Amino acid sequence: MATKASPSKKGSSTKKGGKLVSTVALFIGVLAVGLYWVGIDSIVNGINLALSGYSGVCDQYPIAKPEGFNDSEFDYFNDPKYLQRSVELLGGAVRIPTETHDDMGPLGEDSRWAVFDEFHKYLKESFPSIYSKFKVETVNTYNLLLTWEGSNKDLKPILYMSHQDVVTVPPDTWTQWTHPPFSGHFDGTFLHGRGSLDCKNNLIGILEALTYLIEELDFKPQRTVLLAFGFDEEISGPYGASQLAPFIEKRYGRDSLALILDEGDGIHELAGTFFAHVATSEKGFANIRLELHTPGGHSSVPPDHTGVGILSEVVTDLENKNLQKPVIDMESPMASHLQCAGKHGKSLSLIVKSILLHLDLKPIKLLLRWKMKELFSLVAYLMTTTQANDVIVGGAKANALPEYSYLYTNYRVANGDTLEALNERYLKIVTGVAKKHGVGLYAFGEQLIAPTKAGYFNVTNLQPQLSPAPVSPKNDVFGKLAGAVRLTFEEFQSYPSIIVTPSLMPANTDTKFYWQLSQNIYRFAAMSGMWETKIHAVDERVEMKEHINFIFFIQTLTRVMDTYTEI
Ligand SMILES: [Zn+2]
């Protein structure tokens, strides 16, 4: 994944405890008023819902066993020989340093792209069965599109995505690695190196899973299987997925794929229950640049407010007046996620369960908008359009008035919020400061206030803004995926039970280019323990047992989708 937001942790436990008691007391009060407010019908409905076990809320799908599945297949994947082969395949891929740097020059000009030639050669040599059964194409030099033609053209293809590139290892961190970053070293449990978890493990795992189908099962798909591997996801995909997705769309058309699966979160234990987080959407994104031009001059005769001062006032106002409360949008995957936690979280108190199960009630919505950060700090940022003032630069000399200052602010837009609303809120703040200080304002190419002698603001985007991704439905295809997760973890790995829940990616994957191709886009890695490993950091590593779970899951899902003929 391109970037990763980390959950915030706040306050000491005693402080938290006191806060929690007062919050709970508050909640009971609000609940009492709320129940009165929503009326007796809702109370009766609530009781009925309670008696029916909240049917319809976070219902689970059955375990999906592929046709002809034999339990001895578990043994095949548990064999130490399989592990050894898998270590060699993934280790070899990690040893090829396919870094993409922020300052990469164009293809064909910047020699650093050439490492992808080596990576392609490695894949061809390592996966001969795949290269004999699949049609292999390159798109825009290094994108890989592999096609395993199915026999039934009425079935929509499925598409597995991954990216070949890895995030750069900053040279000054090399010595901090326990094992060198491109060693692919296996310590008996973990395989180490940049890309071992983001996400050569996905790319190699997909190829290993399909190799199993070819070599061990002589599998012949009815449904076409596509593999799409970009090569610059870590720098937002200007040459990779942005070129590959339209190529696929041209060939198959809009809404032509049954399923798209890309990298994402995995399985975690929360509130005494194992949840599989299948991201059905991604937050939107905006990087807004605010420039301020003001007249220069000697610092001995300054105005009351210099450009730096005026720009700082914008920062202050943005942080005091523009912070969003959580958006409780029932269509958002986060609402589904919280309801799943409410229904299945074993160690949650009844009161928390009732809050979560009744998210759609107005008093609960109000309570959560007001107290979300205190109650559920870990998820609050996922339900909020976040704002971070990340860069501020102004002036050039200690004795000269600043003539040019600028500010970069990063937004991650929540489901239920829109770019239009975000821009409107942002411009309201800037307009207020512009009027107060008598400076002009241009915004996104339009003049809103004419420039004056005192100067002018100019608002532009650093990158094109991106709306929150369309929410993929919890339908039969989601059900097949969930069933494959359950087979992998409940039967192959003997977990007690896995609750599969829709969830949200806080960052953007290459799927942002694929929205037109399918309604069913899921971002998920069938692995547990990912929060304990280190994506994008020193000592990135993958637990090989989890890598094999991923392989098992992909081969299961491929077979299960092959015999499902409704789409
Ligand atoms: Zn990634």
Keyword list:
567 residues, 6-stranded mixed beta sheet, Aminopeptidase, 3 domains, disordered N terminus, 16 helices, 8-stranded mixed beta sheet, binds zinc ion, alpha/beta, Alpha-Beta Plaits
Uncertain segments: 3-17, 35-41
Structurally, the number of domains stands at 3
Number of strands: 18
| Strand fraction | 15-25%
- Mean pLDDT comes to 89
How is the main sheet built?
Answer: 8 strands, mixed
Question: What structural class do you assign from the helix and strand content?
Answer: alpha/beta
CATH topology of the largest domain: Aminopeptidase
Bound molecules: zinc ion
**If helices are DSSP runs of H or I spanning 4 or more residues, what is the number of helices?**
16
CATH class category name of the largest domain: Alpha Beta
Notes on the structure:
There is one protein chain. The protein is of the alpha/beta class and 567 residues long. It has 3 domains: 13-53 and 328-376, no CATH class; 72-272 and 469-563, 3-Layer(aba) Sandwich (Aminopeptidase); 284-324 and 385-461, Alpha-Beta Plaits. It has helices at residues 13-38, 40-51, 72-78, 80-94, 115-126, 128-133, 200-215, 241-252, 307-321, 333-344, 350-357, 362-375, 377-380, 419-437, 476-492, 544-563; strands spanning 99-100, 135-139, 143-148, 158-163, 166-167, 190-192, 225-230, 259-270, 273-282, 284-293, 386-394, 404-413, 440-443, 446-449, 456-461, 498-505, 521-528, 541-543. The strands form 4 sheets. Strands 2, 3, 4, 7, 8, 9, 16 and 17 form an 8-stranded mixed beta sheet that branches. It has a 6-stranded mixed beta sheet with strand order 11-12-10-15-13-14, covered by helices on one side. Strand 13 and strand 14 form a beta hairpin. Residues 3-17 and 35-41 have low confidence and may be disordered. Residues 1, 163, 198-199, 233, 263 line the site of zinc ion (ZN).
